[in-house]
Amino acid sequence: MKIAVLALQGGVSEHINHLKSLGCEAVEVRKAEELDGLDGLILPGGESTTVGKLLKETGILEKLRKKILNGFPVWGTCAGMILLAKKIENDESRHLQTMDITVRRNAYGGQINSFLVEQKIEQICSEPIPLVFIRAPYITKVESNVQIICKINNNIVAARQGNMLATSFHPELTNNLEMHKYFLNMCRENFSDLYELS
Cross-referenced Gene3D superfamilies, in alphabetical order (predicted)? Predict the structure, then answer.
């Protein structure tokens, strides 16, 4: 499979390394035309306002939005979650607006409030995995078509809506590959569905 990481800003290389270790063809996307021929895309952590502006300037935003709405698998980590959200509580900006979630930016505070927890996530794996939170958002509201995957202290930190996955935490900053495996399975499911339709 060919999986890309949006490479406008943020933690790109860590995701690329995880994808390669799972046998993927992992590429970086910086232009709208580079979205063609992909099986999935990761929106990495970074600064959501900056990435949102760059998405518009590069022409990626509208093309990517259409692809997502047509079923293209996408996973937003941290800032990527904010990019996907239809509503952002403490920010007037809106970006891709494809996922029926409301997100609170920097919900855990600044860099000094970063933390690590070990948590078992039923849909992902049978053992606890490390979850790294850095200036992380969390989801404050989901619509009925959104599946909540993980909560920490009653805050929603991972959710899925069909072809869209969003996590507050940074799996790429640990050696654990379970979240990346889960996303690759989402991409395979989508490929199978498209193959059946063709």
Answer: 3.40.50.880
Reply yes or no on whether 180 is catalytic: no
Quote the pTM value: 0.94
The annotation status of 160 as a binding-site residue, yes or no, is no
48 known ligand binder: yes
Asked if residue 134 belongs to a known ligand binding site, the reply is yes
Active-site residue, from 78, 95, 180, 187? 78
Pairing of the two strands 155-161 and 147-152: antiparallel
pLDDT tens track, the chain, 198 positions: 999 999 998 889 999 999 999 999 999 999 999 999 999 999 999 889 899 999 999 999 999 999 999 999 999 999 999 999 999 997 778 899 999 999 998 877 666 568 899 999 999 999 999 999 998 999 999 999 999 999 999 999 999 999 999 999 999 999 999 999 999 999 998 765 554 443
Q: Which of 15, 18, 95, 170 is catalytic?
A: 170
DSSP state, residue 34: G
CATH superfamily of 2-197: Class I glutamine amidotransferase (GATase) domain (3.40.50.880)
15 catalytic per annotation = no
Domains of the chain, by residue range, sit at: 2-197
